[in-house]
Amino acid sequence: MLKISHISKTFNKGTINEKQALRDLNLHLEPGDFVTVIGGNGAGKSTMLNAVAGVWPVDEGSILLDGQDITALPEHKRAGLIGRVFQDPMMGTAPNMQLEENLALALRRGDRRGLRWGVTNAEREEYREKLKTLGLGLEDRMTAKVGLLSGGQRQALTLLMASLKKPKLLLLDEHTAALDPATAAKVLELSDSIIQENSLTAMMITHNMKDAIRHGNRIIMMNEGHIILDIRGEEKQRLTKQELMEKFAEISGTQIESDQVLLTR
Amino acid sequence: MSIVAYFASLSILKLIKNMPGGVAQGLIWGLMALGVYITFRLLDVADLTVDGSFTTGGAVTVMLILAGCPAWLALLVAVIAGVLAGLCTGLLHTKLGIPVILAGILTQFSLYSVNLHIMGMAANKAVSVDKFSLILSSRNIPASILTGALIAAVLVAVFYWYFGTEQGSALRATGSNSAMSSALGINVGSMKVLGLAISNGIVALSGGLMSQYQGFADINMGRGAIVIGLAAVIIGEVLGRALLGKHLNFCGTLSFTVIGGVLYYLVVVTVLWLKLNSNDLKLFTAVIVALFLAVPYLREQSKSSFSRLKKKGAAPHA
Predict the structure, then answer these.
(1) Does residue B28 sit in helix, strand or coil?
(2) Residue B237 to chain A, least CA–CA distance (Å)
(3) Is the pTM of this model over 0.90?
(4) Which of B38, B166, B174 to probe by mutation at the A interface, max A CB count within 10 Å?
(5) What rounded mean pLDDT belongs to chain B?
């Protein structure tokens, strides 16, 4: 489904702030893979997701999604294939627009936007049904401005928006990190069910080891711009937090105490 | 002059007599404010091109009418000229990476020369309603008010439709959250250029109407147009919220923007009637706009600010 081959990215090349964020990174996702991504700060997790989303062009390598080479496509041109939820709950929705308008924008992700009505009555019914499944009572506030919603509500809405038009790939960039524990749990649960119901291929970055182990069928660990660990299937199901920590220390060769601080919360 | 003599010299009748003219001009400024509304409120950018494109609209209209072109066609060409001006600012911003305020200033600055060229290097060109058939004129104020209101109504309706379409929604989304818009496949650069182009097209239309109303185009007729546009948008918003509160929908907001333009101009008429120096008008307008822009901020500050804590002496639990 997704094939990342030998991609590299260096920021601020030739300056004192030069940072090689991705180094010859390779990753191959099968259809239906739900990968959790872990790693310390600056390991390149978000950078990898942004490279796939096309926030900026990569320096080297190629990215294939569903057989299509998207390496040279700008962000808005590959958006039709990719659903995204960001760390900042404010980033995924338009605050000055109504709930139903936000959903309508998301339903047309990647489509040509012409002079037909922005929201139709048939859609409204669909939105109402989908909003009901969130269990947040948002189905009765469809004409409210999204800016009036809480962070958790907005994040749940963004999740719904990302899957409204079925994406080839769903990218979740620490999408529960800014939420309180109860809301975070709920949004995670929701992510799980949306991914399962639509049998989506997904990548989820998290700083929480337990979440990384509990969710998805595959886990990858990143360090210094590439993948240092890739565990899937049965082995992933049996994985414990302790094992993960040990593997990390073994492969990266760094002190476990210091990384424990970075990886657990 | 004593105060008594000053007040005695003011005639209420004269004020009332000047009001209709104020309404007519206010309507034209209100149309321009609709253009400013697109950039200022929907795209969330302050576009300074309008000072130039307003004059461009006036210059193109007058020159074409003088050349024997029918007034409606002259206005249409004026709109296209305005669209080109907006396009220029938009491309300077999106393709060359110039901050939008600077891009607007550059276009506006260059339009001064362009406008002089359009007017055959004259700073002022008159078009007489006696010789040409104009869409509106200060000679016939009631008809001008009617025409102005009609054009405003049509524009509000077109806006209401357009910004409800997929494309219009995408434009609004770009102004509301550009990162999200990009992630949803909206080309935010194109949307900004499109918004600036439409906005300046409408500003030029308003300039074309103004030149017909006053019977001439002047190289300086657009000076401060952006401030007047902002004044109209803000006055309209404040009034709309005060009168309709939560029931203020998009159509209402647009209508109140036009009404804001009218109110602004009626204030101007009153100020002139009070025999204040008309050269102080720009200062006066700037103060009004600054006040209205500051009100929401100050209201927020009055609810929670450090200085308020200081006044109370100390925090409650200290």
Answers:
(1) helix
(2) 15
(3) yes
(4) B166
(5) 93
Give the distance from residue A194's alpha carbon to the nearest chain B alpha carbon, in angstroms: 18
Q: Are the beta carbons of B169 and A104 separated by less than 8 Å?
A: yes
Domains present along chain A, CATH in parentheses = 2-96+150-263 (3.40.50.300)
What is the reported pLDDT for B278? 80
Q: What is the CATH number of the domain that holds B132?
A: 1.10.3470
Tens of pLDDT, residue by residue over B267-299, are: 989 988 888 888 888 888 888 888 888 887 888
Domain boundaries, position B266: 11-302
> Any chain B CB within 8 A of the CB of A121?
no
Q: Has residue B265 been placed in a domain?
A: yes
Chain A segment 225-264 residues within 8 A of B by beta carbon are none
**DSSP class per residue in A58-121:** -SEEEEEETTEE-TT--HHHHGGGEEEE-SSTTTSS-TTSBHHHHHHHHHTTTS---SSBSS-H
Across the interface, whether the CB atoms of A79 and B167 are under 8 A apart is answered no
pLDDT for the residue numbered B93: 98
| Residue-level pLDDT at A256 | 46
Cα dihedral value A105, A109, A115, A118, nearest 10:
-20
B308 part of a folded domain:
no
Calculate mean pLDDT across residues B124-134.
95
CA atoms within 13 A on the CB side of B45: 30
Report ipTM for this prediction: 0.92
Tell me the CA end-to-end span of chain A in Å, nearest whole number: 32
- Residue ranges for chain A with pLDDT beneath 70: 252-265
